[in-house]
Amino acid sequence: MKCPKIYIKKFGGKIKMSTQIPTARIYLGSPFYSDAERKRSVKAKELLAKNPTVANVFFPFDQSFTDPEEKNPEIGGIRSMTWRVGTYQNDLNGISLATCGVFLYDMDMIDDGSAFEIGFMRAMHKPVVLVPFTEDPNKEKQMNLMLAQGVTTIIDGNTDFEKLATYDFTHMPANPVVGYKII
């Protein structure tokens, strides 16, 4: 856990000392298939580690479930039922224990798993920060209605990724999706 930061607030001419205590428990969701997606995840964890309002970050790929009976799981793409149940339950537990979610959303290759996790978080009335990325800066910005209306805040991953280090996860100020064609 990070050390509390002491800061001074002015209230109507009075000075009051206060302690900022990190309380946000983040579920960091992201596809993890390409090198670019894996690099973004590493960067997001670094930025969130600097954020004084963040107590911890749950990243599912750091908590991977392993089925000891599975042989060569990376070959063939068919995973055991034990692995599927364990992985699904670990992810849902991470979401359930989180106070909010941060999702690195690849707009070039939409990920159904991330969309499910966002919907699950919102169904639990937990705020979600969406950080969309694209490798094509000229690509038309468009987003599904349910995703656009479902998230609490959007932080453009291509231009404002660094804001994850300073975003106030204690109060979760809204920044609705604008500038996207909604489909």
TrEMBL record:
Keywords: Transferase. It holds the Pfam family Nuc_deoxyrib_tr. SUPFAM superfamilies: N-(deoxy)ribosyltransferase-like. InterPro entries: Nucleoside_deoxyribTrfase. One of its GO terms (molecular function) is transferase activity. This is Nucleoside deoxyribosyltransferase.
